[in-house]
Amino acid sequence: MENNLGINNFWLIIQGPLTYYDEVRPSYSGFDNVIWSTWKNEEKKIKNEKHKVLSSYPLFTGKQNINYQVKSTLAGLKYAKNLGAKYVFKIRSDIAFSDLKLLISKLKFDDTLYFPAYHLREEGYFIDYFMFGPIDKMIKLWSIPTKFRFLNTKYPEYYIKKSYFKHFKDEKVRYIIPILEANNMNYMWFKHPENFSEILEDKVNFVYDKYQRD
Length: 214
Prior knowledge:
The chain is globular, with a radius of gyration of 16 Å. It has a five-stranded mixed sheet with strand order 3-2-1-4-9. A three-stranded antiparallel sheet has the order 8-7-12. By secondary structure, it is an alpha/beta fold. It has helices at about 20-25, 65-80, 100-105, 135-140, 155-170, 175-180, 195-200; strands spanning about 10-15, 35-40, 50-55, 85-90, 95, 115, 120, 125, 130-135, 175, 185-190, 205. It has a single domain, classed as Spore Coat Polysaccharide Biosynthesis Protein SpsA, Chain A (Alpha-Beta Complex), CATH 3.90.550.10.
């Protein structure tokens, strides 16, 4: 199926609680291929959206809500696959881009996974605000058991990186922030509006050469 971007079998997944739905919704008004993956108690906010996945909350949040993040992301990815998706761009539900169509046009539709950046903090990890890649790889990446209760001490990005090297240890990634910079694009994180400037200004901790594909 060709969507209004002229790209076959590509879907956007907006994932997470809809606290900032009114703020982010205009960014997707020109798209038909949008899936909203959120929680059952958010249904009233997106009653007019064509494609939505409404999940029940997991019993335990896990540290920094990892169980919530994994469950709603994976539910959206599986829904997209059932629609015939070959590629997906997964975006937090509190983030919007200044020119999403331009950004998508700069991505390579091959077998590569894209992350925003790589952070050298802790053991080092891939930033997870938004990501793009082939649907089957995205599903493998997010197939993280939601078994975390109170004793898991690691942050969510640790488990994403662990999953990446479990499934794709010899493969390289690409990064999205340099594409935004090169094309004078921005993203707005409504929950943490200072974040984009922090990443742009911090050239020590946020890097783009770890595990990078040419």
